Known about the structure:
Layout: E1 33-36, H1 42-53, E2 58-62, E3 64-66, E4 73-76, H2 83-91, E5 94-95, E6 100-106, E7 112-118, E8 127-128, E9 133-137, E10 140-144, H3 150-170, E11 186-193, H4 207-216, E12 219-226, E13 232-240, E14 244-247, E15 251-255, E16 268-272, E17 277-282, H5 294-301, E18 313-316, H6 317-337, E19 343-351, E20 356-359, H7 363-372, E21 382-392, H8 393-398, H9 400-414, H10 419-432, E22 436-437
Parallel strand pairs: 1-2, 13-22, 18-20
Antiparallel strand pairs: 2-7, 3-4, 5-8, 6-7, 9-10, 11-17, 11-19, 12-13, 14-15, 15-16, 16-17, 19-21
Helix pairs in contact: 1-2, 6-9, 7-10, 9-10
Amino acid sequence: MKQIFNPFGKKKFRDVKEGDLEILKSVAEGWNIEYKKEKPNSKEIAKKISSFANSYGGIYFVGIDEDGETNCAKDIVGVSDSPDDIRNAVQGNVQPFPLLETYPITLENGKKVLMTVVESGENPPYIHSSGKIYRRQESASDLIVAENNRFAIDELYKKAKNYGCEIGKFRNSELNFCVGEDDIPYLEIYVNTTPFNHFIINDFFKEETIKEFLEQFNGEIKIEEKKEDGSILASFNANMKFDSAQTYSESIAIRTLENQDLAYNGLTVEIDISGNLKLLIPLNRKIVFSEKHWGKYLNILKKSQEESISNITFLDTRHIIGSILGLINNYIEFLEKKGYNEKLEFKLKLRNCWRSSLYIDSEKFIEYVKDFGVPICMKSEQEFPKYSIIIELSEIKEHPIIQTAHLFSHVANSLGVCSNTAFLSIMDEIQNNPQTQD
């Protein structure tokens, strides 16, 4: 696994406590570390952060006094400033905004050390508001001057271009579809570890790993989400069945072949050696409608030409939610077993969704349809959202149903139902109609 330099060994940055900071008294400033006793002005903070992003990444400490002779940490003094001060300083002075996370470490004296972890940027150069570009050179942030260091700037742009090509290639299913699949709507979900391709699954192509991956996605999964008082907010049961695993050059894919047309893609889960995931989910037709709200919905539908209703594909919203919920939660469990528990980045795509419509069994949804009409998608393919959704793996574990509902809301928005209405409606349906999803 390629990771940022971590002076705390195997301890995660989020778990660092005051006692752990003592190790820094033997760690000198340099390529990956910088100490500041007090919070500098915003432009100076931005200069240091951008230099890390343009180089190899690093950790920027505020509240630690440096030993002038050894360049190591000397005194752990702390500051009263907020972690937001670091982010705000960078946001106003660096473009594009680099990947960073600031962790406040509380001290016994009531103050805190601000530890900002900066990733090696995948979209350089990160340009300071002064118009200058900085990069690390041992313990300094050296200015890259265009007139005499054109090669260094070209390398930064090349790195960004290569990253864009790599992640663009990943977000392509590379699957071929038969003519018979042209009428089957599909949801494609692309999930990557971050930074992209900085994680490696050991022994990836061994039979034991392939078997473990196949078994992880089989069987019943029961997911509950609790409120702060410990009561159940919502629950969901899902059954998964995969009976086939195959390898590609850098990935493993699992499918269900029993009672399926072997020439069709069907539900497909593909993971690569860097832990990145591709999901292909056929969107089932909704055949059975509950009596609770369907009558009201049908009355709205009949305001159009009744004979045209048969031309619309009503999608099984609950099946979409259940598929995302079960597959993503099995995925994060597999990643955790392999040693990854950081952030995940999501992009989605709809295929063959022309003349498709969502139906959500919720009063909130019916009221939306009364106000805005029946949502019918008239586009065949859509990729969304414009900017990737980034979620901490721990957030998905803590709030699996809410996070899945948020992902679904982006799907619903692309199918004609605004995100907020879709989120509230599907949460209402799940809470009021708990049942198993096959």
